[in-house]
Design brief:
Elements lengths: L2 E7 L2 E7 L4 E6 L14 E2 L4 H14 L17 H10 L8 E2 H11 L7 H9 L12 E2 L12 H10 L17
Parallel strand pairs: 1-4, 5-6
Antiparallel strand pairs: 1-2, 2-3
Length: about 180
């Protein structure tokens, strides 16, 4: 059984989902793939202990605190490749960014392959079911493009600015799937 609650944030209403023990989802309202990873519709229930923990974490994050995530019981639902990409996302420090290409190189090494497609990585990043906490907003194109955020570029920019990222080296693409 799955449960859900909502959280009002500076980037819009967030939906949190839990399996009763772990956080399995955190989506920004109107985000692409919102709730897609859940095998069943969640029941609204606010008093799940993990929701209290996540709400406290989100309060601190949106107040500008640099918070770790190792104490949060995160259990995103997805296959092995996506899990590998999401594990890499968890290592991107607050206020820093990495590129799809850099993640592809790391995934290729982990999988004992010569190369890995940055587009395949982009698909896994885009399907991250625990936004903000597993920081997919910290991934940019190798040319400085801010493309690739399932909740839209404006929310990605807002999160990066909140973290104090120097935005002068980035640009909003004219075309793309995540605008």
């Amino acid at each position: 059984m799955y449960y859900s609650t909502t959280y009002k944030s500076p980037v819009g209403k967030l939906t949190l989902a839990s399996d009763g023990d772990n956080l399995v989802g955190l989506w920004i309202n109107a985000q692409k793939y919102h709730g897609d990873s859940l095998p069943e519709k969640p029941t609204a229930k606010d008093d799940i202990p993990v929701f209290f923990m996540v709400n406290e974490w989100l309060d601190g994050y949106f107040a500008g605190e640099r918070l770790g995530i190792s104490h949060l019981p995160l259990a995103p639902i997805g296959g092995a490749f996506r899990q590998g990409v999401w594990d890499i996302l968890r290592t991107i420090p607050y206020g820093e960014v990495t590129t799809y290409g850099d993640i592809a190189k790391e995934m290729a090494g982990r999988m004992h392959k010569q190369r890995m497609s940055a587009q395949a990585v982009g698909g896994a990043v885009g399907h991250n079911p625990i936004s903000i906490i597993i920081p997919c907003h910290r991934v940019v194109g190798s040319n400085g493009s801010l493309t690739g955020y399932a909740s839209g570029i404006a929310k990605k920019v807002k999160l990066l600015k909140l973290e104090g990222v120097d935005m002068t080296k980035f640009f909003v693409p004219k075309k793309g799937t995540a605008l």
